[in-house]
Amino acid sequence: MKRTQIYLDEEVYKYLKAESKRTGKSVSEIIREKLRAEINQSKENLVKAIDETAGIWQYKTENVEETIRNIRKGKRIDNIRY
């Protein structure tokens, strides 16, 4: 574990102190838990986005490599077939 120092505004500090008193956990422990939850949520959102886009080209009939080349060249894609 690494040690660090942060500055909190008054409102956040009061919330953390109240949460600490309510739960019996230290302010540092509460901060670590909140950060872990945020990081885990971000990871879940990324996995969800990947899952939602997986297979998106599955039913397209055009040549994928040619389409990507055209996109990179800045050409419009008007005749995409599904």
Topology readout:
Blueprint: H1 10-23, H2 27-53, H3 64-73
Structure explained in plain terms:
- The chain has 82 residues and is mainly alpha-helical.
- The chain has one domain (10-73).
- The chain has helices at 10-23, 27-53, 64-73.
- The chain is elongated, with a radius of gyration of 24 Å.
- The N and C termini lie far apart (52 Å).
- The mean pLDDT is 86.
Characteristic terms for this protein:
3 helices, 0% strand
Q: Compute the number of strand runs.
A: 0
Q: Roughly how much helix do the residues carry, as a percent range?
A: 55-70%
Secondary-structure element string: HHH
Summed up, the helix count is: 3
Overall 3D shape: elongated
Write a brief structural summary.
The protein is mainly α. The chain has one domain (10-73). It is built from three helices and no strands.
